[in-house]
Every structure is written in structure tokens, then in C-alpha cells.
Specification:
By secondary structure, this protein is mostly helical. The protein is built from 5 helices and 2 strands. A two-stranded parallel ribbon has the order 1-2. Helix 3 crosses helix 4.
């Protein structure tokens, strides 16, 4: 068996690309009208905290969605995102 090694670097997203990624992922997960929704401030906070890195965006969104589900809401705001952030991610927001 031959091995093929690939390396692909994904550059960080800007805020608009972060927003589109979140919308795309929600759509692929079955989110339709009436499903979970991230406010503009929430997207901005996710972008700042994750510095636009897709893997980090996914992790923060997943945690925020879990917190919203526990709270019984479909609207994810900046406060919910803040609760979902790890301590090192909140430091990213300050820079």
C-alpha cells in the first residue's frame, strides 16, 4: 500500500466568512426556519474569540448550542457565546 501525505492549511476566516460558515453548518445539520440562530453580536464574539479558525469556530458554536438547548432557547446571543468560551478564548477577544 502506498501512502500519500497531504498538508492543507486553512487560513483564518474574516467575520463575514465566519458568519457564512456558521449558517452553512447549521443548514447541513438540518437547521431550518425556526431552528437555532446566532445573533450578529454572537457571530462577532465567536469570530474575535476564535480568531477565525474553523476548528475553533465549530467548538465554540457546539458549546453555545448546547448551552442554548439547556436554557430552552433557539437564539444564541453574545452572552451565551461568552458562557461557552474557554478562558484562553476570552483572552483572544481582548487582543
Amino acid at each position: 500500500m502506498d501512502r500519500v501525505a497531504l498538508k492543507y492549511v486553512v487560513n483564518p476566516f474574516n467575520e463575514e466568512e465566519t458568519r457564512r460558515m456558521i449558517q452553512h453548518r447549521l443548514g447541513k445539520a438540518g437547521g431550518a426556519a425556526g431552528g437555532p440562530r446566532f445573533t450578529e453580536d454572537a457571530v462577532r464574539r465567536i469570530h474575535l474569540a476564535t480568531q477565525g479558525y474553523p476548528r475553533r469556530i465549530n467548538r465554540v458554536c457546539q458549546k453555545a448550542l448546547e448551552r442554548a438547548a439547556v436554557a430552552g432557547t433557539r437564539l444564541i446571543d453574545a452572552e451565551t457565546v461568552g458562557e461557552a468560551l474557554e478562558p484562553d478564548e476570552t483572552e483572544s477577544e481582548a487582543t
